[in-house]
Design a protein that fits this description.
single chain; 252 residues; mainly alpha; 8 helices; 0% strand
């Protein structure tokens, strides 16, 4: 099932559930005059809404920042490998071809094999680590024979180290960042906020039921948005390997 369709169904089901519950309460004769709602309940509702809005905003900002950092990490890794390939051109052809072949092998494996596994399992593979180590060894063994090659040698090693560091960060970002206790707070806060609708004893007019349904659907949308962005390389808003394909078009 497409993710967008699942989101729409969840929002619609939540809104419909609120309408059904309110109609059941009305049929059972448990409704009362909204003017009888104590002022303290209205005050508590306002405070709960403000506190929950702050927590929800911080959660969205956190996962959004993590998603952006994951995209930047992928670009950094791809750019570093591209720099190694470009700087290797000052070496003799057999050396530069060996470096390019090692880079292409690593990038092809990352794009075709490791990326799907990373999205599914949330972690990197040992084979990818091995290929990057082989690339580092090939670069290290390319001994410079003139000044130009000497100027390119040290930056090449630095770029390999930069790619290695970006790879490590990419592996860390593949796992969900939101701890379970935060999810418990977000879900519990949403349930409490929705429950306050009934505590306020709303009237069961079509307009108020529509607003209540939309209010609950908004909670579902925001929570699913956080859930999507919490795993940057999977779920509904995944970071793609496009940065690798830009620099290495034949790797896809």
């Amino acid at each position: 099932m497409p993710h967008w369709l699942l989101l729409i169904l969840a929002m619609g089901a939540t809104g419909a559930l609120v309408v059904v519950i309110t109609r059941i309460v009305r049929r059972r004769g448990e409704a009362s005059d909204p003017s009888e709602t104590p002022d303290v309940i209205e005050y508590m509702t306002m405070m709960i809404g403000v506190v929950y809005a702050i927590v929800l905003g911080l959660a969205i900002a956190g996962v959004w920042e993590a998603l952006g950092e994951a995209e930047e990490t992928v670009r950094t890794e791809a750019q570093a490998l591209h720099e190694v390939s470009e700087r290797a051109q000052v070496f003799p052809k057999p050396v530069s071809e060996a470096i390019d072949e090692s880079i292409d092998t690593y990038v092809r494996y990352v794009v075709r094999e490791e990326w799907p596994r990373m999205a599914e399992d949330g972690q990197l593979t040992e084979r990818g680590d091995q290929l990057l180590s082989e690339l580092r060894a090939v670069v290290r063994e390319s001994e410079p024979r003139n000044e130009l090659q000497g100027q390119a040698y040290a930056p090449m090693l630095d770029q390999v180290a930069r790619a290695d560091a970006a790879r490590t960060v990419r592996g860390d970002a593949a796992e969900p960042a939101m701890p379970p206790v935060v999810w418990f707070g977000l879900i519990a806060g949403a349930l409490v906020s929705i429950g306050m609708i009934f505590a306020l004893q709303i009237r069961y007019t079509r307009r108020e039921l529509t607003v209540a349904g939309l209010y609950c659907a908004l909670f579902v949308f925001l929570l699913m948005l956080i859930w999507d962005m919490d795993a940057p390389f999977s779920r509904g808003m995944p970071v793609s390997a496009e940065a690798f394909l830009v620099h290495f078009p034949g790797s896809g």
